[in-house]
Specification:
- This protein has 375 residues and is α/β, with parallel strands linked by helices.
- It has a single domain, classed as TIM Barrel.
- The protein is 43% helix and 12% strand.
- The protein is built from 16 helices and nine strands.
- The protein has an eight-stranded parallel β-barrel with strand order 1-2-3-4-5-6-7-8, surrounded by six helices.
- The C terminus is likely disordered.
- Bound molecules: iron/sulfur cluster (SF4).
- Iron/sulfur cluster (SF4) binds next to loops.
- The site of iron/sulfur cluster has 9 residues, from loops.
Length: 375
């Protein structure tokens, strides 16, 4: 049974009714527990739970210290290509957006990697748009092999592949994959991804399982906050997490919280997700899933990221550029999205230390977790 089978059996109207009927009394009944189960997720993500963020934050901080200590691991994204065949209305790389396009050649990739390695990073995330002609599998394999020369942990955030593709990347040295479904709401998904290969909801939904099946140990999922009703989508994301933890227990699972801040062309964001909403979701995931990684990127402001750090976040990016070649020749016109936290990696490291946490350049927690579970 795939996650799609599970998803198809969820009665969305029932979940919605349940979400809308939760009261403050219901939250009071569960909030003083020392541990939470999946059945509590809907309560913790509901509107009335917004009034209990302080209590949730105290428990989330304690649980994170228990499971991850004071470590915050650091990674940096490297965009290899901004060519894309898709039409995701929210993305600067969508095919009909008039921006300078570029695919880095291997010497350019190596130059970028050298610059990144000089900053101290040992974890890198390689990204592309979805254009199998501009960034084919053979190109990605070479990029991964190059990355292994410079970085201990190489993860990818690229278009979904078949088994053969993931196997080739795993053999080349890929340690982890991040792949957001963007939204689990099929209707919204179709509206947002009208043309291009990404319009295939199911091929994308099953991709993370394909990657786990070929042995990629670090798997990351998420929704793009702002596309749909975030409370319902977060619940479906939690369902996906439960499914993956059960079926791919040898993997280390992370959840990311990308949030739409603006849409190219000045379109309105369909569902505004406030800082408070985002904080609540992070707390709800931490309380129900104390052992998974929680990731926040430089899409968010420095101030918000600093405030979120002790509440459950285990991994953050720093010093990011979202355009191919951005570390040697920044060019905001060809970027995927605007980076809000523009601090240097060393500034981020100083901040982490100043609040009593330990910045780690290599995420050993995920490595140990996956190996422990394997043995
Ligand atoms: S979100 Fe990804 S697939 Fe969609 S347009 Fe942007 S780069 Fe392409």
């Amino acid at each position: 049974m795939s996650f799609n089978d599970v998803l198809s059996r969820i009665d969305i109207d029932f979940v919605n009714d349940k979400l809308n009927s939760i009261t403050s009394n219901d939250i009071e009944e569960i909030i003083n527990r020392n541990s939470f189960s999946f059945s509590d997720f809907l309560y913790l993500a509901s509107k009335p739970a917004e009034n209990f963020l302080e209590e949730m934050a105290k428990k989330a901080r304690r649980l994170t210290l228990q499971h991850f200590g004071r470590t915050i691991s650091l990674y940096i994204p490297l965009y290899l290509s901004n060519y894309c065949l898709n039409s995701c209305i929210y993305c600067g790389f969508r095919h009909d957006n008039d921006i300078p396009r570029k695919t880095l050649g291997l010497p350019e990739i190596e130059r970028e990697m050298q610059l990144i390695a000089e900053k101290g990073f040992t974890q890198i995330l390689l990204l592309t748009g979805e254009h199998p002609h501009e960034a084919p599998l053979s190109y990605l394999v070479e990029a991964v092999k190059l990355a292994k020369k410079y970085f201990a942990l190489v993860t990818i955030e690229i278009y979904p592949l078949d088994y053969q593709g993931y196997r080739a990347l795993h053999e080349a040295g890929v340690d982890g994959i991040t792949l957001y479904q963007e939204t689990y709401d099929r209707k919204v998904y179709s509206e947002m991804h009208g043309t291009g290969p990404k319009s295939d909801y199911l091929f994308r939904l099953d991709a993370i399982e394909r990657s786990a099946k070929v042995g990629i140990r670090n798997i990351g999922i998420g929704i793009l906050l702002g596309l749909s009703d975030f409370r319902l989508d977060a619940y479906l994301l939690a369902c996906h997490a439960v499914y993956l933890l059960k079926h791919y227990w040898q993997s280390f699972l992370s959840i990311s919280f990308p949030r739409l801040k603006e849409i190219p062309g000045g379109l309105n964001i369909p569902y505004i997700v406030t800082d408070r909403n985002l904080t609540q979701l992070i707390l709800a995931f931490r309380l129900v899933f104390p052992e998974i990684g929680l990731v926040i990127s430089t899409r968010e402001s420095a101030e918000l990221r600093d405030n979120l750090l002790p509440l459950g976040i285990t991994r953050i990016s720093a010093g990011s550029h979202t355009e191919p070649g951005g570390y040697s020749a920044p060019d905001i016109k060809s970027a995927q999205f605007y980076v809000e936290d523009r601090r240097s990696p060393m500034e981020v490291v100083s901040k982490i230390k100043s609040i009593g946490y330990d910045p780690v350049w290599l995420d050993w927690s995920s490595e140990f977790s996956s190996k422990d579970r394997q043995d």
